[in-house]
Amino acid sequence: MKNEFRDRWQAMNWQDITLSLYGKTGVDVQRALASQRRSANDFMALISPAAQPYLEQMAQEAQRLTRQRFGHTVGLYAPLYLSNLCSNDCTYCGFSMSNRIKRKTLNAEEINRECDALSAMGYQHVLLVTGEHQQKVGMDYFRQHLPLIRQKFSSLMMEVQPLSTEDYAGLKTLGLDGVMVYQETYNALTYQQHHLKGHKQDFFWRLATPERLGQAGIDKIGLGALIGLSKDWRTDCYFLAEHLSFLQKRYWQSRYSISFPRLRPCAGGIQPASLMDDPQLVQLICAFRLFAPEVELSLSTRESPYFRDRVVPLAINSVSAGSKTQPGGYANAKPELEQFSPHDNRSPQQVADALSARGLQPVWKDWDKYLGRTAQNQ
Ligand code: SF4
């Protein structure tokens, strides 16, 4: 057995996988649906075009597994944007260094105001987001601000530049619970075409980040592909499922979360290379639930209220709400600084009410202190 996902990735051929995906038949889908424990090959059948006529059956099974594993709970979290400085150029992102937008990094006082605004909305679980600027928003900045933010919330996640194992282990002692790190695309050529400057050009450093997180003992690891970046979202998502499966086997102490970002309009943005329609996104979400029943599936405010209200009850167990995608946005909204325009602009309470109306229980925290995880500085 190989030791790194890089080896597994190199053993897989994008074209071959695409051909296999499009060669799946109704019989393959029926076999996958009937399986008790579904393999990567079953997952492939479930995301293939052949599975489209089985969407209702997939949705019913996904809902059953979601209720069995998570009950009626749906966790709510909010992204807290700390900085929009970035030393990378990504063709699809408003924070790219070559975009002439106002740059802002929150200081301690501003962070405090944001935390208070989020607490007042009921949040106890936040995702800290920055651009990727190692010099100005790097470890010194995180070490300085994490302990204070941690005191205000019961769980903290981060979506920042990929760091070393040692840095992740250090942040864990300051109260870091989880890290989201999306590969964007598993197609190396497409990756190269969309990452034009900066450290993010290093495909393999990013690819190995979840393994470093597992080695550092980070509790929750978030994965995802930016749907629409490559020519085939199905192939990308198959690689994502392989990545998840690899990590679960080796770093089984960590929990995993999968997100489904579809490309959204942004300053200087690009058109998606492949379009995924709503039924296809439902198919993908249900396929992940059938493949990995224990994994958190998350849906952000990139999606519309109409879509979220109908799909969350099927298989989603984590949602963001009332998100502001610009630094300082909760205490003082300045839309010109935002990373992308959210599609669901309802308040957190409106989203919570919509969940309750569908018989779901909104939960404002991911973890409780009494369950035993405490930061060193608390
Ligand atoms: S996607 Fe991330 S790394 Fe790329 S420009 Fe945006 S913030 Fe920077």
Description:
With 378 residues, the chain is α/β, with parallel strands linked by helices. The chain has one domain: TIM Barrel. 42% of the residues lie in helices and 12% in strands. The chain contains 15 helices and eleven strands. The strands form two sheets. The protein has an eight-stranded parallel barrel, surrounded by six helices. It has a two-stranded antiparallel ribbon with strand order 2-6. α4 runs antiparallel to α12, α4 packs antiparallel against α13 and α6 packs parallel to α7. The longest helix has 18 residues.
Whole-number mean pLDDT: 93
What is the share of helical residues? 40-55%
CATH topology: TIM Barrel
Ligand types: iron/sulfur cluster
Question: C-alpha Rg, in Å?
Answer: 20 Å
CATH superfamily: Aldolase class I
Text of the CATH class = Alpha Beta
Query: Which class of secondary structure composition applies to the elements?
Result: alpha/beta
* Number of strand segments: 11
Spatial shape: globular
Number of domains: 1
Helix/strand order: HHHHHEEHEHEHEHEHHEHEHEHEHE
Number of helices: 15
CATH architectural grouping: Alpha-Beta Barrel
Q: pLDDT below 50 for ≥5 consecutive residues: which ranges?
A: none
Biggest sheet architecture: 8 strands, parallel, barrel
The termini sit apart by: 41 Å
Strand order, sheet with most strands: 1-3-4-5-7-8-9-10
> What percent strand?
5-15%
Keywords:
alpha/beta; 11 strands; 15 helices; eight-stranded parallel barrel; 378 residues; globular; single chain; TIM Barrel; binds iron/sulfur cluster
